[in-house]
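ok trying this again, last paste got cut off
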Amino acid sequence: MQERDEYIKKLNEKLKKLDEKVDEWSNKLKEYSGKAKEELKAKIESLRSERKDIDNFIKKLQNTTSETWKELKEKTDKLMKSAKTKYDELVKKMK
């Protein structure tokens, strides 16, 4: 289970960095107005929602058996990839 523990640790480190970046972009929303601001706000909220889903998967990973942890790991990896894509889209829109 050391592999699982290391995976969860790295995942939490990535999420912490993502949270910091999203908070930074959220603070920059003040610089926008109108439709652009609403679109960006929706993207940030969507990203935060996905972040909560990842948290739920981490909790499941911590409490899963060795037989099912790899399946959950794959699902968590997909969520992380999706969150990364959403973050990249957010960065493009805010530049």
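PB: full thing came through this time. The radius of gyration is 15 Å.
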